[in-house]
Amino acid sequence: MGKVEVAAGVICAATVVAATAYIIRRRMRYSSGRVKAMEIAKDFEEDCATSFSKLKHVADAMTVEMHAGLASEGGSKLKMLISYVDNLPTGDEKGLFYALDLGGTNFRVLRIQLGGRDGRIVNQEFVEVSIPPNLMVKNTDALFDYIATELAKFVAQEGPGFHLPPGRQRELGFTFSFPVMQTSISSGNLIKWTKGFSIDDTIGRDVVAELAKAMERKGVDMRVSALVNDTIGTLAGGRYFNKDVAIAVILGTGSNAAYVERAQAIPKWQGLLPKSGDMVINMEWGNFRSSHLPITEYDRAMDIESLNPGEQIFEKLVSGMYLGEIVRRVLLRMAEEAAFFGATVPSKLKIPFILRTPDVSSMHHDTSVNLKVVGIKMKEILGISDTPLKMRKMVAQLCNIVATRGARLAAAAIYGVLKKMGRDTIQPGENQKTVIAMDGGLFEHYHEYSKCLESTLRELVGDHVSEYLFIEHANDGSGIGAALLAASHSQYLGMEES
Predict the structure, then answer these.
(1) By C-alpha distance, which of 193, 147, 135, 143 is closest to 174?
(2) How far apart are CA 97 and CA 114, in angstroms?
(3) Nearest residue to 236 (alpha-carbon basis) of 115, 101, 110, 91
(4) Which of the residues are catalytic?
(5) Distance of CA 396 to the CA centre of its chain
(6) What is the pTM of this model?
(7) How many CB atoms lie within 10 A of CB 289?
(8) What is the model's pLDDT at position 497?
(9) Smallest Cα–Cα separation from 106: which of 70, 125, 133?
(10) How do residues 11-21 score in pLDDT, each as one tens digit?
């Protein structure tokens, strides 16, 4: 054998050895990275754990905070706002009623014709109107004049399917989804604008009075009977169709709850007790917090970087605004510390809130053998095209962890409300039903979330109470619910419709 052949053989052997070593190192790095990623997922799952005993502690803490919030203003992280709604719809209401739903860059005006116990909602119509951006930052009169003008157009189109008895004034329920200090069923002063509005001269003013003045300027003869938020509207809509509805819960982009409280159980209530003996409380439970909540390092980091650090802690654990972001943050940690998606961290994975909760829902609901939907979402949203099955399973697992924690905590919060109301037990001989009206896109569309919530709530209350506990989906509290509250607080209550 010649020297050239020997040299060539040595080089070839060296090349094979080097290639083999590279493959081995790559496999070791992949194996090491996968082990690290699994450790991150395992730690996250442990930190998100919601054992039965932990959920009981969360429910007890919710009940304690409810008592404190009812005792005094500022006595709790739960505002426990008095809504001044003491008459929920009964189903007997008759007549024509309007609603105005102002909560963002669009507003809706709606009308319903109520036919009493037999007719219920005989007819309904609505129109949605965009607010010009310049009016969101101009002045109070300009904004409300625009709304009143559109309301006047809508009233002018009132067709033969709607009937206002002679001599009566039209009445309206006003859903105003901005922070207000409510002073009566039909008055409330704006605390601050949100959602892109910035009109300084409205701050501190009664928004109902401003709307009334604008309607007068535009020739609209209409009385605002009720100022409400969407949660109380959901409670009203639920009660209209089912007399056993006692609690309303919103699980959408945000989260809140309202319930019927005995007026005499509200120490901070200073007025005369209402004839009904009841008062609807707007809990504002998104701001609930407790040492028993399973808050992870990812939740803390997201909170610090949020527009409202230290606030709405419970909402950040359970609502649709945040579930996708928590999944993204865990995936980013895996990418950075475990090279989960390769040597380079995907650039889109660094963008906050790029992964939305509807995307998490789609991946969580993926039942295909190869988790095809997960692969598609990872490519379309995060630009990650190479996703082996094991990687897709890990992503689906993270979706499950985050959704399960949120759903179980929401169930614990509801259980806390039931305990405050004394409806967590059924006494011998009692057969009182409790119906919870639920609304919001998260509850309606994220089926794994809603199924987990319902099963957890039944686990908490036990089999016997579960027989008397029902959850119903109630839609459009901010529209129909507001119109129904205008009806139940009408100036013509007790008068026969002529």
Answers:
(1) 147
(2) 8
(3) 91
(4) 195, 230
(5) 23
(6) 0.88
(7) 18
(8) 52
(9) 133
(10) 545 454 444 44
